[in-house]
């Protein structure tokens, strides 16, 4: 009965819709065109009817939303027609009784361009009654709402043209810088500038300077008239412009990107941890679509949560905690080293300025692309009907202050930057702990202990109030308040950062080889660490509501402790256990170039995914094989694009900062 009913719906739903549309109480022009849509079988009318949505096979298998988009692009190509999407909220759909209960049906229709959404919306009940009468489909308490695509859905703004112009300028600088670098343009002016600014260096006419090129038309014995201040200024200006342009040289920057040789103070295994964590995050974002309506077989995806391997992939959220751990390690280790070399003194204002300059230019550039350019790359019924899906909030200023994680979601701009806000907030307060560890270690560890205790209590209390489950994925996807109350707040993410500071201190005090761990102790610690990781990645459920609430609150409060403990042992093993397999893998030199562009890959991969999601006019059928191909494509493109912005934005900014700004 179910399949027969669905088949009937699929075959003649177009006729029903057309019959219904002829009864729309609208303008005369609208009514006439609707009548032509049914009775005059010209090519445009046939294409309009063909683009109507209709129930498809698998209707009973879908969950949450029955999506009948139709053919959006076919309708959009018709000049006299417009695409509309009817959202019908219903209490229940019964075909046959007891098989399927639903909350929404999405139905795409192609109607004449002069018909308003209100005219279609006001008569949709007529169609529902017709369906109910002819097909025994019991749809109760249906509430229709119709939206139609405007043309164009999103006009080009000033921000779009400014962003494109800046991108073109950067590309031109990259090209010019590469040409200047390869051809050596301006090298003579550079030498002359260095010569004129060094009072101990003889003038160019002095025969003792045999390494300087001779001026054109003069012999080595000729004297050189002193240059005027204007000439010196012009030479210095040309040299400065040359340095600025060379900062964008693709030839020079690519050589630095691909260089796998590091200094003696480098920590090689951190590169592998950074890249693998980034790939894990990309896997998770590929597996979890932008919205549930992006997938046709949502029920199959939900069932996959119970599979052990896929459960580990679903809980990719702790990959961000790995980033925080690594940040804590590097900030503590490098800062303690600088304090040691400068007898406890540091220019703290440059400590903060350098960090801000390091992060902000790339974030600002990609935030502009996300806000002004990315929406124009979409071609999808949902985003063209509801522009608010793709338009950024007005909280761009909060990104520049790194407080965006305290704004309401609808005001946020470039949502994924919440992590940068948390990292910067930790960075701002880190000198208090690090300086205490340098001067009086016991005071520093007391601070760490108090912070861990207080923030764990806050997390447990918030989790209890929200009734969070013992699963990060379920918490994020099924509790709307979880993200803004717990997930993106610094006071719930302190353990990984503080554990990273602890290891940074150990590395500073013990050095690279000052601690020995026996093989027996290594095996024992690995067993404990793996158990801790499993407790984090494998979801646990309670037998009743109260026990589930207790387990969920405990999990949310303690899982970052467990994950931080796992990470702490991984780095301890890599540093102080000889010939470790994990250290060999994580210290692989091929990770180094990828690690350098991971910051860009983190910001870019979500842009690529959104472009991928919002160019589908039909829901996707998710499978492990398809998601694997999607992951490989997104990860590859993310790192390629990240390498481009690293060469064109990150490295030039770093070079110019190093040249013109004082560093601590």
Structural features:
664 residues; mainly alpha; four-stranded mixed beta sheet; two-stranded antiparallel ribbon; 6 strands; 5% strand
Please explain how this structure is put together.
With 664 residues, the chain is mainly α. It is built from 28 helices and six strands. The chain has helices spanning 2-21, 28-39, 43-50, 72-76, 117-121, 124-135, 158-183, 187-197, 229-246, 250-258, 269-287, 298-303, 308-314, 318-341, 348-373, 381-385, 396-401, 418-439, 441-466, 472-478, 482-487, 494-510, 519-537, 545-576, 581-586, 591-596, 598-613, 624-660; strands spanning 65-68, 81-89, 92-94, 104-112, 138-140, 143-148. The chain has a four-stranded mixed beta sheet. The chain has a two-stranded antiparallel sheet with strand order 3-5. Helix 1 crosses helix 2 (28-39), helix 19 (441-466) runs antiparallel to helix 24 (545-576) and helix 27 packs across helix 28. The longest helix is centred in the last third of the chain and has 37 residues, at 624-660. The radius of gyration is 31 Å and the shape is globular. The model is unreliable at 1-12, 18-28, 94-102 and 195-224 (pLDDT under 50).
Structural class: mainly alpha
Order of strands in the sheet with most strands: 1-4-2-6
Largest sheet: 4 strands, mixed
- Tell me what portion of residues adopts beta-strand conformation: 5-15%
Shape: globular
Q: Radius of gyration, rounded?
A: 31 Å
Let me know the average pLDDT. 79
**Strand elements, count:** 6
Query: How many alpha or pi helices?
Result: 28
Distance between the termini: 76 Å
Low-confidence region ranges: 1-12, 18-28, 94-102, 195-224
Give the helix level as a range of percent: 55-70%
């Amino acid at each position: 009965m179910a399949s027969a009913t669905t088949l009937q719906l699929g075959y003649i739903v177009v006729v029903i819709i057309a019959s219904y549309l002829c009864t729309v109480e609208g303008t005369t022009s609208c009514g006439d065109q609707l009548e032509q849509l049914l009775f005059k079988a010209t090519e445009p009318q046939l294409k309009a009817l063909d683009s109507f949505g209709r129930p498809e096979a698998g209707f009973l298998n879908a969950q949450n939303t029955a999506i009948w988009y139709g053919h959006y692009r076919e309708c959009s190509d018709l000049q006299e027609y417009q695409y509309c999407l009817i959202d019908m909220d219903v209490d229940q759909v019964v075909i046959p009784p007891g098989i399927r209960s639903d909350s929404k049906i999405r139905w795409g229709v192609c109607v004449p361009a002069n018909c308003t959404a209100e005219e279609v919306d006001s008569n949709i009940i007529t169609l529902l009654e017709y369906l109910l009468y002819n097909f025994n489909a019991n749809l109760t308490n249906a509430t229709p709402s119709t939206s139609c695509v405007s043309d164009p859905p999103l006009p080009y703004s000033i921000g779009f043209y400014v962003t494109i112009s800046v991108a073109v300028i950067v590309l031109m600088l990259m090209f010019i810088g590469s040409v200047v670098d390869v051809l050596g343009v301006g090298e003579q002016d550079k030498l002359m500038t260095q010569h004129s600014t060094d009072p101990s260096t003889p003038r160019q006419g002095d025969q003792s300077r045999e390494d300087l090129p001779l001026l054109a038309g003069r012999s080595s014995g000729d004297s050189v008239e002193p240059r005027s201040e204007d000439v010196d200024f012009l030479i210095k200006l040309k040299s400065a412009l040359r340095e600025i342009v060379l900062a964008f040289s693709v030839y020079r920057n690519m050589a630095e990107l691909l260089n796998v040789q590091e200094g003696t103070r480098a920590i090689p295994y951190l590169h592998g941890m950074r890249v693998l964590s980034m790939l894990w995050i990309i896997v998770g974002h590929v597996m979890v679509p932008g919205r549930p309506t992006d997938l046709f077989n949502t029920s199959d995806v939900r069932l996959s949560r119970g599979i052990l391997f896929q459960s580990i992939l679903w809980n990719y959220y702790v990959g961000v905690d790995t980033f925080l751990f690594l940040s804590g390690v590097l900030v503590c280790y490098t800062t303690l080293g600088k304090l040691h070399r400068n007898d406890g003194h540091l220019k703290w204002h440059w400590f903060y300025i350098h960090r801000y300059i390091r992060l902000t230019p790339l974030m600002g550039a990609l935030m502009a692309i996300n806000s002004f350019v990315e929406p124009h790359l979409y071609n999808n019924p949902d985003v063209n009907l509801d522009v608010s899906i793709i338009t950024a909030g007005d909280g761009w200023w909060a990104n520049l202050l790194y407080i965006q994680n305290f704004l309401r979601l609808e005001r946020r701009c470039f949502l994924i930057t919440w992590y940068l806000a948390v990292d910067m907030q930790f960075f701002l307060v880190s000198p208090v702990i690090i300086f205490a560890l340098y001067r009086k270690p016991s005071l520093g560890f007391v601070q760490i202990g108090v912070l861990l205790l207080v923030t764990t209590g806050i997390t447990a209390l918030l989790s209890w109030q929200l009734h969070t489950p013992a699963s990060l994925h379920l918490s994020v996807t099924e509790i709307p308040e979880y993200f803004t109350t717990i997930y993106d707040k610094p006071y719930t993410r302190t353990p990984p950062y503080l554990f990273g500071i602890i290891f940074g201190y150990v590395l500073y005090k013990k050095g690279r080889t000052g601690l020995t761990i026996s093989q027996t102790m290594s095996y024992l610690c690995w067993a404990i660490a793996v158990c801790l990781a499993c407790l984090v990645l494998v979801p646990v459920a309670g037998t009743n509501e109260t026990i589930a609430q207790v387990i969920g609150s405990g999990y949310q409060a303690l899982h970052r402790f467990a994950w931080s403990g796992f990470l702490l042992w991984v780095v301890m093993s890599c540093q102080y256990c000889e010939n470790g397999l994990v250290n060999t893998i994580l210290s692989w030199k091929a990770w180094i170039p990828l690690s350098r562009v991971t910051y860009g890959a983190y910001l870019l991969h979500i842009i690529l995914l959104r472009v991928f999601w919002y160019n589908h006019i039909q829901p996707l059928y998710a499978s492990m094989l398809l998601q694997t191909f999607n992951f490989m494509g997104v990860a590859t493109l993310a790192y390629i694009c990240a390498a481009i912005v690293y060469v064109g934005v990150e490295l030039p900014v770093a070079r110019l900062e190093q040249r013109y700004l004082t560093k601590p």
